[in-house]
Design a protein that fits this description.
Elements lengths: L5 E5 L4 H12 L3 E5 L6 H6 L3 E4 L3 H11 L7 E4 L20 H9 L4 E4 L6 H4 L8 E6 L2 H13 L3 E6 L4 H18 L18
Parallel strand pairs: 1-2, 1-3, 3-4, 4-5, 6-7
Antiparallel strand pairs: 5-6
Helix pairs in contact: 3-4
């Protein structure tokens, strides 16, 4: 599903983008990195088949505006969590309902927007250790969600379909809850794990 595809990590100079890019490179994927100190975001998006946006919420709108002319017909994976400092332990979803729906609105109908990687600790991804955390993938197009699941698996994580894009609000809000738990219980990178025996929906 990812074979022969070029994946642009927009914000690849940051913690999450750099960690994901590192894991995907080790998995043999063709990765290009768009960063403020390297290849411009627009150029990276133009050169890619799949675009993964890993910038902070404060930079989301500006970043998407830069890549919007280059996303038609492509899958855009938005990882944005609407954290609003200093109250990052309080869920603060945008007026659109979620950062993912906001991304879809800003990019327009030419792109297929999905969302994922909200609740995975970047510092854990940056290591070679196993990360005991599931990745929920949201999107209105099942085939595009399957690409997100494949990206999670390429990063040695378990990717799971989470339903339509609007459902991303649940994972985005849960990130604030996990930050609260990290601080309250002094845990290093709390994550989510879905229990039960799951049957592959693509089988």
């Amino acid at each position: 599903m990812l074979e022969g595809k070029t994946i642009a990590v927009i914000g690849g100079g940051g913690k999450l983008g750099g960690a994901l890019a590192g894991r995907w490179i080790k998995a043999g994927l063709n990765i290009i990195i768009g960063s403020r100190s390297g290849m411009p975001y627009a150029a990276a998006a133009a050169a890619a088949d799949i675009i993964v946006v890993t910038v902070p919420y404060a930079a989301q709108a500006d970043t998407l505006a830069q890549i919007a002319p280059h996303v038609r017909g492509k899958i855009v994976v938005d990882t944005t969590v609407p954290l609003v400092p200093p109250k990052v332990m309080r869920a603060q979803l945008p007026p659109e309902g979620s950062a993912a729906v906001r991304a879809q609105t800003l990019l327009g109908e030419g792109a297929t927007t999905i969302s994922a990687f909200h609740s995975v600790a970047a510092d854990k991804l940056a290591t070679d250790d196993e990360v005991d955390c599931d990745v929920l993938v949201f999107g209105d197009d099942k085939a595009a969600r399957s690409v997100g699941v494949a990206l999670a698996e390429a990063a040695s994580l378990r990717g799971l379909h989470g339903g339509v894009l609007a459902n991303s609000a649940a994972a985005e809000a849960m990130t604030s809850v996990l930050i609260f738990m990290n601080r309250t219980y002094r845990v290093d990178g709390a994550g989510l794990r879905v229990t039960g025996t799951l049957v592959d929906p693509d089988a």
